[in-house]
């Protein structure tokens, strides 16, 4: 599956609101808005829901994490092969709530490429973004941890973190796409993110915790539709 941009990636994290049957319900809601608007909306359900969700929607599905091990004798680990077999098109890695070492990111990015899986490497500062871009993932996602879950959007509260990240990635590895995330809730936040040079957003609570998922996602993509 080829990813089209702009991209909205909804991370379900470990939220109970989007777990089990609810995970599929939210993914189907995202799919509905994606179909109505023609925009790429991807989802990253909990690992336990990955296969269930991927088998029942056609939008891109990502794992939230993988370990740097090959299939075999590794109890409790998640391999790239397993998430591929579960139907994911790729994986997030190094989320601030699930950090891994840089050498592990390197291994995962290289192995994912061999398996044709898309990698979204999360970062916390422009400097770390630059370092991760050098490893050659498909996408880096800059997310200042202090804004995560606050509803204060990075694209408005810390635009310089986003623009510096975009600028450094352009210099170091222009093939790498940049997303931003943390506090993204409204369509205005998404429009601001695109204006700063990103290809989209990574978000969680603004959608997962919304009372009306469809309304929240529609509101989120509205400004992008106007741009098109
Ligand atoms: O960590 C995030 C997405 O991966 C951002 O979380 P929030 O959208 O809840 O701020």
TrEMBL record:
SUPFAM superfamilies: Triosephosphate isomerase (TIM) (SSF51351). It is found in: Cytoplasm. One of its GO terms (cellular component) is cytosol. InterPro entries: Aldolase_TIM, TIM_sf, Triosephosphate_isomerase, Triosephosphate_isomerase_arc. This is Triosephosphate isomerase. Coiled coil: none annotated. One of its GO terms (biological process) is glyceraldehyde-3-phosphate biosynthetic process. Its EC number is 5.3.1.1. Involved in the gluconeogenesis. Catalyzes stereospecifically the conversion of dihydroxyacetone phosphate (DHAP) to D-glyceraldehyde-3-phosphate (G3P). Belongs to the triosephosphate isomerase family. It catalyses: D-glyceraldehyde 3-phosphate = dihydroxyacetone phosphate. The active site is at 95 (electrophile), 143 (proton acceptor). The gene is tpiA. GO terms for molecular function: triose-phosphate isomerase activity. Homotetramer; dimer of dimers. HAMAP family: TIM_A.
């Amino acid at each position: 599956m080829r990813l089209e941009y702009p991209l909205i990636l909804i991370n379900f994290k470990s939220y109970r609101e989007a777990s089990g049957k609810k995970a599929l319900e939210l993914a189907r809601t995202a799919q509905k808005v994606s179909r109505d608007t023609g925009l790429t909306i991807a989802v990253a359900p909990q690992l336990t829901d990955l296969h269930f969700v991927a088998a029942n929607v056609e939008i891109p599905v990502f794992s939230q994490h993988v370990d740097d091990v090959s299939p075999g004798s590794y109890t409790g680990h998640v391999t790239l092969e397993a998430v591929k077999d579960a139907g994911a098109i790729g994986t997030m890695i190094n989320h601030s709530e699930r950090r891994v070492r840089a050498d592990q990111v390197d291994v995962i990015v290289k192995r994912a490429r061999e398996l044709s899986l898309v990698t979204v490497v999360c970062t916390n500062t422009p400097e770390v973004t630059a370092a991760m871009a050098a490893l050659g993932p498909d996408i880096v996602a800059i997310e200042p941890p202090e804004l995560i879950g606050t509803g204060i959007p990075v694209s408005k509260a810390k635009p310089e973190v986003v623009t510096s990240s975009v600028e450094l990635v352009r210099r170091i590895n222009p093939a790498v796409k940049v997303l931003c995330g943390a506090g993204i809730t409204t369509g205005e936040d998404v429009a601001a993110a695109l204006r700063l040079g990103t290809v989209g957003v990574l978000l969680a609570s603004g959608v997962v915790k919304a009372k009306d998922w469809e309304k929240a996602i529609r509101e989120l993509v509205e400004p992008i539709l106007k741009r098109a």
